[in-house]
Amino acid sequence: SDTVPKGAIPLDGCSSVTLHQAKTFCFAINTPYRAFLLRADSAEEAAQWIKVVTLYVSGSSGRGAVSSTTG
After folding, report:
1. How far is residue 3's CA from residue 14's CA, in Å, rounded to a whole number?
2. What's the rounded Cα separation, in Å, for the pair 43 and 1?
3. Radius of gyration of the chain from Cα atoms?
């Protein structure tokens, strides 16, 4: 089911959260170990995810700035 979490994305060292232009409503969370490509149900939801993840990482334990691109 779509409501059961499949795992967690570690945000330690996250360097950017960006809108993925090639796919509809997709955004990428880029970490030192891998890029996670995720899909939202709408452009508004994708923008909200990008905003929330960027705010979380920017405010977490002084891990530094994170770039955010919403297109």
Report:
1. 25
2. 23
3. 12
SS (H, E, C) the chain: CCCCCCCCCCCCCCCEEEECCCCCCEEEEECCCCEEEEECCCHHHHHHHHHHHHHHHHHCCCCCCCEEECC
Structure tokens at 22: 């090639």
Query: How big is the chain, counted in residues?
Result: 71
**Statement: the pTM of the whole predicted model exceeds 0.85:** no
Q: Nearest CA to 10 among 68, 69, 71, 63?
A: 63
| Pairing relationship of beta strands 67-69 and 26-30 according to DSSP bridges | unpaired
Question: At residue 44, what is the residue type?
Answer: E
Condensed to tens digits (0 to 9), the pLDDT of residues 17-67 reads 988 876 789 999 998 889 999 999 999 999 999 999 999 888 864 444 455
